[in-house]
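ok, trying the design again with the full structure, not the truncated one.
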């Protein structure tokens, strides 16, 4: 005992007061104050000032009761959202107020944006961002900074959590990382002003959007959820980081679960609110073929029909070819000519002719539909074609660049009809050596329409109509191809997935399109024409500025990306020598040969292609690295590509002695065409993914052989060998151990057994689920272990998953922790 006389005795420790208990009303009040937000356990703890284990246990107990009573909804892991605002208002009302409230009245005014059901997932507006030790969640609570340097740039959405803003100008700034809660609801392609922050993340500057200068397309495609009289649209595009609120009078008879196109009319300043929109197009119940394909078209801004004035203009074009027009052209109608196209094609924009010359050489004509004869500058057809810039080939339909009257009629090189063409004519010997080239307007009469399969039969059997001509041209094509590769062309090719569909668009089969000699023969002569047209225009003027032309260019890969790919390939035992830039293509081709037929072939070839730069249209004659051409253009597909129409016009202009054309307007059209081409490719991929998921939905429970094609912290992607459908095996579902991602070595590793799984590994998988709405496929690995072992592991996993995740003791360094806890810590 301490006394004044014994002042030197140690003081007794003062008892700390027991922290106040956390009540159920306090927990519910946090949700009521944040009706549209997703709140994780840690956020609840922070807001309620939790400091002890006992308080944490109280929160979990209250959460269980609130869930049971339908007041909050579990979304995923330990994340919850308000489920019923009216019920919550009643639950929080003081007893005295409840007595005074009339039946049907709402004691607390419901918030403008009501919560969404669990299937909508996490509210993507709210994202924690780490900076200088602060954790701003609510947006408005962030202290204002004094104005500092700002940058104007274009938004490039990366994930639901952050975007990059690509600065305008000369590259003075690197791309700026902006977290989505600081984007002011900017979308892909929007132009914004960004205020730079101090510091960086992953070596990139960071910033906040202070102003959206231009919204490119404030329209979103998604599935609508109706709650009472209110609607919320969950975007199909996973990079779109917010849902759209639709008030009752703007739903326009949409029903719960419909796939819709919504136009955003109001972008709030407060990031805790949701944008407000109006349904402007309803595609029908989500999951149906027409609804989903039409939704893909709308998502990528693809047109559904041609304007009436464009159709009328196309219908008004005469089919009659005037004699004076024929007189101005070189006549090939008496020369053997045929087309080779896919069996289901209707727009034949190229034909080949062949005749033997007196000197023993062969004249090969590459005849291209003369689209610009019919589509004149200043017309509605021209304006529409320029805007669309390309035809789009979805799985079950084509969205043409030009109306059917032109694409499948007037311009299509149908057999047994006189057709106007723009031709590249070559004198070659049987070894493929080129002697002369000629370019000009022509008229042809196709003798035969071949499908690729029919032409391949002639090549393999050496028999049938025009078999001699086809085999001669095929031999020449082989020689041209060999010369290309000798000069440094790259052999890597992407595999094209095709579907067999029934009359309703349902996939009956998925297969990889095989490129045989018939395909390669046509390709080689088209490459020859494109290259020689580009070289011809480039060489018309020997001094700068050269004549303006549309080139298709492909830069050499960036050294850093090549080195990264080389390190990846080295993990599989392949060594790339990249010291000599002139031998890069040789090294890549050698790798392509080495991996042929091996499990890692598709993975390595796919990554090699992604390592390459993207081909674009430009007026700069920069060459084509992948094809090993100094000059290359697109001349051979004007029915479906606007840059080919541009090349036709420029070539004709120069052939007629015209002066050089101004660069700027042509370059702008090149940029537009490149952007539209990228959009079309993304739409095509989306339609393929949807059909793959639809096909796999009928394969639930079936077993397939696949290879590991991707690895993330959440799981590993498996690509089925026979049909190239790709799905995920979640890391937490891999049997036998708990696995972690080893990002630096492109693999996942078991914690206890140290089993390594990496890219290209062969796996047997069972189809677990196929979600048409999310366009995802889930697999599980075939598990051949005894049933009692699998049951024991399942029980252990179930027990771990039932434990509260927010306060598990990790002091042991994670050895005894569950995978869920590991992922929970990582998810910050």
């Amino acid at each position: 005992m301490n006394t004044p006389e014994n002042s030197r005795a140690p003081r007794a420790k003062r008892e700390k007061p027991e922290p106040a208990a956390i009540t159920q009303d306090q927990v519910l009040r946090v949700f009521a104050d944040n009706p549209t937000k997703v709140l994780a356990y840690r956020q609840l703890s922070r807001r309620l000032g939790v400091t002890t284990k006992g308080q944490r246990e109280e929160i979990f107990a209250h959460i269980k009761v609130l869930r049971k009573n339908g007041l909050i909804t579990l979304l995923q892991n330990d994340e919850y959202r308000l489920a019923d605002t009216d019920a919550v208002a009643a639950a929080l009302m003081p007893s005295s107020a409840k007595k005074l409230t009339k039946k049907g009245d709402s004691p607390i005014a419901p918030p403008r944006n009501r919560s969404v059901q669990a299937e909508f997932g996490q509210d993507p507006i709210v994202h924690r961002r780490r900076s200088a030790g602060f954790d701003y969640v609510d947006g408005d609570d962030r202290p204002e900074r004094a104005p500092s340097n700002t940058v104007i740039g274009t938004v490039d959405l990366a994930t639901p959590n952050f975007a990059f803003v690509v600065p305008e100008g000369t590259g003075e700034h690197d791309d700026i990382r902006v977290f989505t809660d600081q984007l002011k609801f900017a979308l892909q392609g929007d132009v914004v002003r960004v205020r730079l922050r101090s510091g960086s993340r992953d070596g990139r500057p960071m910033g906040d959007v202070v102003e959206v200068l231009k919204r490119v397309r404030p329209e979103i495609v998604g599935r609508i959820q109706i709650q009472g009289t209110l609607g919320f649209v969950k975007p199909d595009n996973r990079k779109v980081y917010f849902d759209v609120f639709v008030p009752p009078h703007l739903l326009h008879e949409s029903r719960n679960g419909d796939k819709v196109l919504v136009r955003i009319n109001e972008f709030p300043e407060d990031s805790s609110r949701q944008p407000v929109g109006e349904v402007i197009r309803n595609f029908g119940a989500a999951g149906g073929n027409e609804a989903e394909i039409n939704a893909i078209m709308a998502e990528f801004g693809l047109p559904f029909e041609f304007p009436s004035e464009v159709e009328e203009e196309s219908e008004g074009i005469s089919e009659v070819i005037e004699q004076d027009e024929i007189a101005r052209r070189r006549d090939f109608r008496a020369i053997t000519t045929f087309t080779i196209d896919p069996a289901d094609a209707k727009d034949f924009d190229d034909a080949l002719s062949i005749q033997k010359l007196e000197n023993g050489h062969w004249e090969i004509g590459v005849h291209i539909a003369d689209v610009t004869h019919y589509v004149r500058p200043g017309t509605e057809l021209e304006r529409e074609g320029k805007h669309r810039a390309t035809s789009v080939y979805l799985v079950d339909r084509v969205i043409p660049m030009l109306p059917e009257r032109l694409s499948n009629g007037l311009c299509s090189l149908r057999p047994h009809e006189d057709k106007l063409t723009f031709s590249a004519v070559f004198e070659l010997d049987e070894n493929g050596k080129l002697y002369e080239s000629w370019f000009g307007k022509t008229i042809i009469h196709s003798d035969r329409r071949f499908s690729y399969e029919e032409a391949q039969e002639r090549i393999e059997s050496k028999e049938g109509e025009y078999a001699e001509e086809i085999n001669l041209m095929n031999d020449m094509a082989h020689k041209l191809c060999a010369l290309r590769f000798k000069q440094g062309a790259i052999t890597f090719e992407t595999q094209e997935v095709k579907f067999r569909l029934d009359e309703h668009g349902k996939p009956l089969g998925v297969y990889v399109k095989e490129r045989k000699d018939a395909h390669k023969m046509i390709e080689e002569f088209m490459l020859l024409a494109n290259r020689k047209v580009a070289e011809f225009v480039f060489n018309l003027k020997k001094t700068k500025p050269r004549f303006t032309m549309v080139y298709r260019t492909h830069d050499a890969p960036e050294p850093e990306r090549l080195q990264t790919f080389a390190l990846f390939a080295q993990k599989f035992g392949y060594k790339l020598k990249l010291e000599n830039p002139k031998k890069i293509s040789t090294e890549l081709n050698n790798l392509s040969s080495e991996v042929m037929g091996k499990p890692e072939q598709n993975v390595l070839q796919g990554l090699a292609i992604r390592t390459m730069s993207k081909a674009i249209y430009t007026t700069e004659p920069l060459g084509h690295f992948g094809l090993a051409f100094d000059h290359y253009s697109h001349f051979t597909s004007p029915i479906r590509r606007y840059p080919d129409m541009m090349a036709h016009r420029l070539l004709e202009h120069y052939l007629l002695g015209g002066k050089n054309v101004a660069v700027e307007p042509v370059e702008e059209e090149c940029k537009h065409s490149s952007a539209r081409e990228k959009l079309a490719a993304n739409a095509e991929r989306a339609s393929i993914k949807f059909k793959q998921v639809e096909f796999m939905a009928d394969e639930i429970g079936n077993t397939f052989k696949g290879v590991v094609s991707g690895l993330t912290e959440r799981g590993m992607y498996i690509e089925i060998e026979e049909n190239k459908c790709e799905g995920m095996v979640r890391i937490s579902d891999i049997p036998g151990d708990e696995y972690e991602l080893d990002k630096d070595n492109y693999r996942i590793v078991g914690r206890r057994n140290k089993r390594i799984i990496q890219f290209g590994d062969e796996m047997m998988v069972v189809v677990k689920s196929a979600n048409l709405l999310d366009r995802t496929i889930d697999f599980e690995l075939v598990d051949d272990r005894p049933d009692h072992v699998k049951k024991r592991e399942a029980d252990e996993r179930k027990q771990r998953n039932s434990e509260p995740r927010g306060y598990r003791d990790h002091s042991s360094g994670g050895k005894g922790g569950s995978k869920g806890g590991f992922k929970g810590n990582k998810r910050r």
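Keeping the full-length input from now on. Confidence is low (pLDDT under 50) at residues 1-16, 94-147, 805-828.
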